[in-house]
Specification:
mainly alpha, single chain, 0% strand
């Protein structure tokens, strides 16, 4: 989730405008940022050199992901994303709040494991 009116989003838009111009900076945020895979965001991939795995569609380009300007833009993109308290950012670890550990699921899993162990 992102907030179009947040200070972080305004800062990102200013950074984009300074580097790539007003036309790109004015595009909808959802077209510029990949909230799930930040490194795959269009605003990061389009100017990244092809040799570095980017699309090399916008100039000026970054030669690699270690470029200080790339890292600055990457940090600005990441700062715009509002993560939910129960959002999984470290791999799949379901919690009761996410609905993956409902009692009926646990019970069904235990029954299945019991049947599987009896079949052995």
């Amino acid at each position: 989730m992102t907030d179009e009116k947040s200070a972080q989003t305004r800062a990102l838009r200013q950074l984009i405008k300074a580097r790539f111009g007003e036309k790109i900076a004015g595009q909808p945020l959802y077209t510029l940022i990949n909230k799930v895979q930040v490194d795959e965001s269009r605003i990061l991939m389009a100017p990244l050199a092809g040799k570095a795995g980017g699309w090399q569609q916008i100039k000026p380009t970054w030669k690699d992901r270690k470029d200080p300007d790339y890292l600055k833009m990457r940090a600005a993109v990441d700062a715009c994303i509002i993560r939910q308290p129960n959002e999984n950012t470290n791999g799949w670890e379901p919690t009761l709040e996410q609905g993956a550990a409902e009692p009926w699921v646990r019970e069904a899993r235990e029954e299945l494991r019991a049947k599987q162990s009896q079949a052995r």
